[in-house]
Specification:
CATH architecture of the largest domain in chain A: 2-Layer Sandwich
Shape of chain A: globular
Strand content of chain B: 15-25%
Order of helices and strands of chain B: EHHHHEHEHEEEEHH
CATH topology of chain B: Aconitase, domain 4
Number of helices of chain A: 15
Structural class of chain B: alpha/beta
CATH class of chain B: Alpha Beta
Radius of gyration of chain B: 15 Å
Oligomer: heterodimer
Chain lengths: ~425, ~170
């Protein structure tokens, strides 16, 4: 019998990328497979590279910069930052995703820049999204990003892992967004600080890659460094014709040591809402149903994927957005936009009164595309509801699934979407 | 060298959107101009209170939760914040602070009240609440971070060693 302790997904990926036998708590310098920056963070990374005296990137095929947070530019200052990014791309050969391509966290996996088993860093906190496809991906600041762009390496503390198991099965009208909000409600916004999360269980196994990304995307909202999942048949099918390299799936050992374990019964989880102004301020939808809303938003790196648009379109098809409500939709990428047109979702949404904005972060981060007015309530599929997040600190942001947002936009008040999935639609 | 300044105290879970709102972060790369908006949604007067003679930002747990924006520690530095003292920090902010040269100290901030005069000697590992006449213990930086700080931050570390030289 072996006495060598088993490893988590995080410990295995860090071992493979650092050439060490790494366990939680170890400090390693590891090779990264990809580095990404967006328009809010890349300019500072470019400046840090200049200050380091570095005028190239370690491998142009492994670096991308994305204009998504404030894109197309709403103001001269942003235009100048975008110009800086385009020039950086020309100079270094790094891939540039210009305005309208989409949200970085959709583009990086969609383009196959990362594959299962990879280690990557991005200058954006929601880089944890690709944990859904078995990539240890984590958000870093611009200076760390610059160091990784320059050297292809970064130092890491190998994190402890919290094992999260979703048992039971999802009920109709309940989605992966509700699963991750339920976790945030259960453990709080610092419940997993510095840990990696590993998501397991039959509920996760049954989810599509789109739905899994919603869960991993919000790992940072409980303080986690990564939100990892196994690469299974669903993942590998999704990667057919997509990856730039062959996937190297990493499973945890059966005897891996977890710092904490938590099991949530999905059968008992209904639609969840994160109330203003904290993601951990979660309650069952029954508690807030009836709250009037002025704006809805469907999109973001959390819930702007094809499946999300399809869920919203299914509710809005043949119905209309309430006259007192504005509904803004931002597909997470140009490809999703095209796919959603192809299958008719875009027509359904626009005919129902939705306003389409360019693929990208849309109004999530408060720079453009739908800043709410004083005192207004917004219901959004995004991942953050901090005060001022959408550009007005006197507005109130509620977070929910695409189904909850679509149903709420039809009725003008926060609405339990389950009736639309059980044949009792309004 | 010891830093002496007043404590400006806030609560738990101060997120990076409060430290610098996204609506400002994209306007330019001019941190001096952005710094006037530091902490604005939580305390509209932070900049004018702290800028003239410096201050310690004192908070509860999970300081700096949220986004990866390095503008967060940078605007605090430009607003003349001498260090952030909190019970715990969010991971990305903590790294960013070290990388940009903003001292971060994990300690029991319940012992400190708003307006207290504090004295911090990072090298000696001593934090004093001068108003209360007490010494507050704090954990030293992890060795890798101490090494980066000793080199003057990550950029200087890279210039000096041509890459990562941490152990």
């Amino acid at each position: 019998m072996s006495t060598i302790p088993g490893k988590t997904i995080a410990e295995k990926i860090f071992s493979a990328h650092s050439g060490t036998d790494a366990y939680a708590g170890d400090i390693v310098v590891a090779d990264v497979d990809f580095v990404m920056g967006q328009d809010g963070t890349t300019p500072l990374a470019i400046r840090a590279l200049e200050n380091m005296g570095v005028d190239r990137v370690f491998d142009p095929a492994k670096v991308a910069v994305v204009m998504d947070h404030s894109s197309p530019s709403p103001i001269e200052g942003v235009s100048a930052l975008h110009t800086m990014m385009r020039e950086f791309g020309k100079k270094t050969g790094a891939k540039v995703y210009d305005v309208g391509c989409g949200v970085c966290h959709q583009l990086i996996p969609e383009a196959g820049h990362v594959v299962p088993g990879d280690l990557m860093v991005g200058c954006d906190s929601h880089t944890c999204t690709y944990g859904a496809v078995n990539v240890f991906s984590t958000g870093v600041g611009s200076t760390d990003g610059a160091a990784a762009m320059a050297s292809g390496k970064l130092w890491f503390k190998v994190p402890d892992t919290m094992k999260v198991t979703y048992s039971g099965e999802l009920q109709p009208g309940v989605f992966s967004k509700d699963l991750i909000l339920a976790l945030a409600g259960a453990i709080g916004v610092d419940g997993a600080t510095y840990m990696a999360l590993e998501f397991h269980g039959p509920v996760v196994d049954a989810l599509s890659v789109d739905a899994r990304m919603t869960i991993s995307n919000m790992a940072i909202e409980v303080g986690a460094k990564a939100g990892l999942m196994r690469a299974d048949a669903t993942t590998l099918t999704w990667y057919e014709g997509r990856g730039s390299r062959a996937p190297q799936p990493v499973d945890p050992d059966a005897d891996a040591v977890y710092a904490e374990e938590i099991t949530l019964d999905a059968s008992a989880i209904g639609p969840q809402i994160a109330k203003p102004h904290a993601v951990g301020n979660v309650s069952a939808i029954e508690e807030v149903a009836g709250t009037p809303i002025a704006q809805g938003f469907i999109g973001t790196c959390t819930n702007g994927r094809l499946e999300d648009l399809g869920i919203a379109a299914a509710i809005l098809r043949g119905r209309h957005v309430h006259p007192d409500v504005r509904l803004i939709v931002a597909p997470a990428s140009k490809q999703i936009f095209l796919d959603a047109m192809e299958v008719g979702y875009i027509r359904d949404l626009v005919e129902a009164g939705a306003v389409l904005v360019a693929p990208g972060c849309g109004p999530c981060v408060g720079t453009h595309n739908g800043v709410p007015s004083d005192g207004e309530n917004v219901i959004s599929t995004a991942n953050r509801n901090f005060k001022g997040r959408m550009g007005n600190s006197n507005a109130f942001i509620y977070l929910g699934s695409p189904a909850t947002v679509a149903a709420s936009c039809v009725e003008g008040v926060i609405t339990d979407p389950r009736k639309y999935f059980t044949g009792e639609g309004a | 060298m010891a830093i002496t300044a007043k404590a400006f105290k806030y609560g738990d879970d101060i997120n990076t959107d409060y430290i610098i709102s996204g609506k400002y972060k994209f306007k330019s790369a001019d941190m001096e101009a952005m710094a006037v908006h530091a902490m604005e949604d939580l305390d509209p007067h932070y900049y004018e209170k702290v800028k003239p003679s410096g201050g310690f930002l004192v908070a509860g747990s999970n300081f700096g939760m949220g986004s990866s924006r390095e503008q967060a520690p940078l605007v605090l530095i430009h607003a003349n914040t001498r260090a952030v003292l909190a019970k715990t920090f969010a991971r990305i902010f903590y790294r960013n602070a070290i990388n940009t040269g903003l001292p971060v100290v994990e300690c029991d901030t319940d012992l400190i009240d708003d307006g207290d005069e504090l004295e911090l000697d990072l090298a000696a590992g001593v934090l004093r609440d001068v108003t209360k006449g007490i010494e507050i213990p704090f954990a030293p930086l992890p060795p890798v971070m101490a090494q980066l700080l000793a080199d003057g931050g990550l950029v200087e570390h890279f210039k000096k060693h041509g890459g990562f030289a941490v152990s």
